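Reminder to self: keep the SMILES exactly as supplied, no canonicalising. Ligand is pyridoxal-5'-phosphate.
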Amino acid sequence: MNVPLLDLGPQIRLLRSEIIEAVTRVIDSTRYILGPEVLSFEKNVAAYCQADFGVGVSSGTDALVMTLMAMEIGPGDKVITTPYTFFATMGAVLRVGASPVFVDIEEESFNMDPDALREALECQQGAGNRVRAILPVHLFGQCADMGRIVAIADEYDVPIIEDAAQAIGACCPVADAQGRISWKKAGSMGRTGCFSFFPSKNLGGIGDGGLVTTSDEKLVDILRSCRNHGASPKYFHPRVGGNFRLDPVQAVVLEIKLRHLDGWHDKRRQNSMIYRELFAGKGLAETTVRLPVEKYADMAGSEGRTHHIYNQFVIRAPERDALQSYLLEHGVGCEVYYPRCLHQQECVSTYNDQAFPIAEKAARESLALPIYPDLTREQLDFVVETIASFYTSK
Ligand SMILES: *Cc1c(COP(=O)(O)O)cnc(C)c1O
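Structure tokens returned for the bound complex:
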């Protein structure tokens, strides 16, 4: 048997004729830049994310870069983020000339540790404080602890930019001053939310794409201007922006896929439950591998909130590298997200002597298994059986 890490074939076969028809409509319209398709998709995806506005852009990376530009974050400024994420989170900060300040993650969720965030903000207090934003990442499809992060950000009066690239549709419990919990969607809690439609995300295009959500009426105008060389109005440039526009071909495909997104999230969650049963059945859960922790499951109760959308199903495994080779040899797709923390990257050599032990441990232990919606029961069985045979053959 062969179980790829991700197979988009079934999804595209299901929607093929609808997609071809929509793309043909764009081709025949001869309107190839922005236009009604992009506007319509922006409205729908913003509503889906519980934000007032959506600004379609060329990628998730550009969503981050453009937000930083719109907020006039640049040289000398600092942005607090996590060292355990995809490179683009840090890359965007560096590209605008600002400096990342890293804080360690929580062992269980892989996300920014609010206590570490508070410590970092405390360290930066006083004259010359240049912390201009907090950039948490909702890694693998589960929100960072935004209840606490929002409260801390408010206390220190620093805006939040959410890197929600992996978490479209994920919900997070946030308590108000009276302690009442309400569920907020990724991208609705910060000044902006940055999304990616890279094909491997839960909502993926047929190429690159991204979106910025915001409910800030002033900022949305600046974001739209930044997307188009900082123009406002056309040919007049109060600022320098870029060409960060979302393609209408991507917009029509994404609009079609958006209608299926909650169903696909449900299937990923069902797969995760099957994995949990299978791992427990083999006696592997807890004793050998550690399965992903659903941090907000208790609070979600019977409401069945989509508190984890499982963009990735990431286990922690002893002898991770040997297990990965074994799985690949036996036809099970898997990948390490991420083998090297950001502070250890060659391009930021001045950060290399910093230490974030929890993130570094995650980089040594984590392994992503196939979780995409169209996996069959037989494929899930095979993944767990192969993992079991690796550990019993030891
Ligand atoms: C995918 C991703 C991005 C970048 O998105 P692109 O569309 O590939 O540019 C940024 N941050 C995180 C956490 C991601 O997973």
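Points to follow up:
The chain has a mean pLDDT of 96.
The longest strand covers residues 53-57.
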